[in-house]
Amino acid sequence: MGRLYLIQLDGRIYSCRNCRSHLAQCDELVSKSFHCRHGKAYLFNTVVNVSVGPLEDRMMTTGKHTVADIFCNSCQQVVGWKYEVAFEKSQKYKEGKFILERYALLP
């Protein structure tokens, strides 16, 4: 197994609750108005130190989306998902963005 390289972010950040790996800068936060099965969730433009899982279609409160779960590179915990395709025109702004679930984060 190779050596694990993690990106260290500067400034105000969100980290993995389980292992404290840096996941996103506060400046990349788009919205705190999202919800997931575990409670609140945040939408980000970019995240770091995550791996993207396989694509799957999910029916969400805002319609059908193709998404992929994202996992912390350090501890392998699911920390959210990535929007790949939004089928509804009004939801296209989410494509390519990331959801981090609040329960998995340390502010």
Biggest sheet features = 6 strands, antiparallel
What is the general shape? globular
Overall structural class, as computed from helix and strand content, comes to mainly beta
Overall structural domain count: 1
Q: Which spans of ≥5 residues are poorly predicted at pLDDT below 50?
A: none
**N-to-C order of helices and strands:** EEEEEEEEE
The fraction of residues in strands falls at over 45%
**CATH-derived topology:** Metal Binding Protein, Guanine Nucleotide Exchange Factor, Chain A
Q: What is the CATH superfamily label?
A: Peptide methionine sulfoxide reductase
How many beta-strand elements?
A: 9
Oligomer: single chain
The CATH class is Mainly Beta
Question: Mean pLDDT score, rounded?
Answer: 94
- Total of DSSP H or I helical runs spanning 4+ residues: 0
Q: Please state how the strands of the largest beta sheet are arranged side by side.
A: 3-4-8-7-6-5
| CATH architecture heading | Beta Complex
